């Protein structure tokens, strides 16, 4: 059992800098920004980690969330996440990584705990720094690149015009999934959101 009183650390994975803001790889930042608005968290530079972080509660008197956006590049995300987990005394079981996922079609959001990183450098860095893969992942489907486009180029490109029409709705859905994990747990959230 996790300590219900302890905070949840919700990490949006992405790359810092305006030139990356609309990239597929930065969807974790987009979800973190939306959640910050929902829970009244204000992002500021954290004193112990190379990250922006903000705190808020899910509903009146609800669970505490620490929202974070690492300010390292994606492949170095782990060190700031581990520093924040240590600072806030959050166990890996109460860490949620929100990230883009090539192996899931665009339009789908999935959640799982543990497992492989699927070649995702941000997750690989987190697993190494946390010393475990047993943290929650909210996986935002971006699908595979068209034709022969290199996946590395694809994730660092912006969402297409058709995708952008749905993007706000899907970022909203991913934020709902994060809230559901915190309030209900991983399995009930899978049952709720994996049907569609």
SSE topology sketch:
Blueprint: E1 8-12, H1 27-39, E2 44-45, E3 51-57, E4 64-70, H2 78-88, E5 95-101, E6 109-113, H3 121-130, E7 136-141, H4 151-155, H5 161-184, H6 186-193
Helix pairs in contact: 1-5, 2-3, 5-6
Protein architecture, described:
It contains six helices and seven strands; from the N terminus they run βαβββαββαβααα. The protein is an alpha/beta fold and 196 residues long. The protein has a single domain, classed as Peptidyl-tRNA hydrolase (Rossmann fold), CATH 3.40.50. Strands 2-3-4-1-5-7-6 form a seven-stranded mixed sheet, sandwiched between helices. A hairpin with a 6-residue loop joins strand 3 and strand 4. Helix 1 crosses helix 5 (161-184), helix 2 (78-88) packs across helix 3 (121-130) and helix 5 (161-184) runs antiparallel to helix 6. The two termini are 29 Å apart. 40% of the residues are buried.
CATH topology name, in short, is: Rossmann fold
Helix and strand string, N-terminal first? EHEEEHEEHEHHH
List segments where confidence is low: pLDDT < 50 over at least 5 consecutive residues: none
CATH architecture: 3-Layer(aba) Sandwich
> What does the overall shape look like?
globular
**What is the rounded Rg?**
15 Å
Biggest sheet: strand arrangement: 2-3-4-1-5-7-6
Report the portion of residues in β strands.
15-25%
Q: Describe the biggest sheet?
A: 7 strands, mixed
Beginning-to-end CA distance, first to last residue: 29 Å
> Tally the helices: what do you get?
6
State the CATH class. Answer: Alpha Beta
CATH superfamily: Peptidyl-tRNA hydrolase
Question: What is the percent of helical residues?
Answer: 25-40%
Report the count of strand segments: 7
Global structural class: alpha/beta
Mean pLDDT: 95
User: What number of domains?
Assistant: 1
